[in-house]
Amino acid sequence: MKLPKAKRMYCKYCRKHTEHKIIQVKAGQKRGTLRHGSIQRAAKRGLGVGFGNKNRWGSKPSSPKRTGSKVSKKTNLKFKCSTCNKQQIQKQGFRAKKIELV
Ligand SMILES: [Zn+2]
Q1: Please, what are the domains in the chain?
Q2: What's the predicted TM-score (pTM) here?
Q3: Distance 75 CA to ligand 1 centre (A)
Q4: How far is the CA of 60 from the centre of ligand 1 (A)?
Q5: Spacing, Cα 93 to ligand 1 middle (Å)
């Protein structure tokens, strides 16, 4: 979905309509399971060898399986006022696969 980079909207601090810059808030990257390269390295070092993968070691599925789970995520936007530089957060997010600021 394409969104404009700036938008005229009401600023509760200036108490009037001003130009607002739209900022997309990115979620911090979570540290997940090991990547395939590090699994191979761990095996060379003698880790994760034996029976079972202990919820950690082993090969990974070739393609991600999407069964029933949603593909889209809710948006997380912030609006920065160009006059007072204060930020307001989006009241309610909407679902979109991809957000593009044009
Ligand atoms: Zn303002």
Answers
A1: 1-27+73-102 (3.10.450.80)
A2: 0.59
A3: 22
A4: 50
A5: 22
